[in-house]
Amino acid sequence: MRGWVIKLDRGFPLVKIENGDRCGEEIRCQHATALVKQEKVRAVIGDNVEVSAPEDADMAQITKILPRECMLVRRDPAERTEAQVMAANFDTVMIAEPADQLNLHRLERELVVAHETGARVVVLLTKMDLMSDSSDESKKRVRAIVRQAKDVAAPGDAIIPVSVYDKASIDEIRALIPEDSKAVLLGRSGVGKSSLVNALVGHDVQQTSAVRVSDGKGRHTTVSRQVIPIAGGGYIIDMPGTRGIGMWQSDKGIAAVFPDITALAEKCRFRDCTHHQEPGCAVRAAVEAGKLSQARLDSYHNLIEENNEQAQRAEVAKRIREHPGRPPRYSRHHGKR
Q1: Domain C-terminal end among 50, 65, 80
Q2: Among candidate residues 208, 190, 212, the one with its CA nearest the CA of residue 198
Q3: Residues 320 and 229 in one domain
Q4: What does DSSP say about strands 225-229 and 2-8: parallel, antiparallel, or unpaired?
Q5: Residues spanned by the domain of 120
Q6: What is the three-class DSSP state of 222?
Q7: Alpha carbon distance 292, 279 (integer Å)
Q8: What are the pLDDT digits (tens) for 71-110?
Q9: Residue 151 gets which letter from DSSP?
């Protein structure tokens, strides 16, 4: 039988069967021993899988994970030299950021991770109801926040100001998740993801908590990854809130979020230019001419450095696993050999 993983929590994956006599049935599964021990892979939310469910077995088994069309990957917070696949097989990544407490550096990082998937990326500026009214000053403030988000987003990324009390903004999001499509909803705890999902579905499917008046934050309510159908549309994959999201081999994502710097870099005198002090650097020249902000270049440098350091740590860890007992080697950049 074939199916797809529609829920992951602290128990066993919940799989919806898509063919055969049990088509449409949702069954709990465990991973086959061969997957866990030999291939060392586990199914994630959105995975298409093959399932074996013998009548004499206590529980069905996931025997194979089919090739993934795309993946949302971050550095495993529990193991800094390993990747963690968060979701698979989706069309859109939606990043929720609170408009009243917009963190541009975090948004840049989320955008990089989202664009690394190759899927369409949408930025949702949530909780607009906490900061907007009908006054001209309020409208001006909202426009400024949208402009800030557009300045760090990649060309073509949709930026949508949203309030769960504004039907037009909810309908705009719903239109981006048509029938048979899947969207991943990403964001830290307390940004209103559960309330947004409830608004998209049309009734309460996710538990929500009250927003504190003092700082506009809610408590972490979603503890599992699950696929939720949207009436008249596709599916949304609601993810638990993440305090931090570490990049993992995100070269393509960085290039997508910083296309202006990538284009300038092609004009540098040296192909390996780091855009610091090298002569003939087109990127530094753009900063000095006022065509590129120093703050944007600093963000680029920080993400590039983190990405390179992460890649090196992963490579060292790989060598240690493959050749235990052999001392690791480091690049000159880190002062060790």
Answers
A1: 65
A2: 208
A3: no
A4: antiparallel
A5: 71-238
A6: coil
A7: 18
A8: 999 988 777 778 889 999 999 999 999 998 899 999 999 9
A9: H
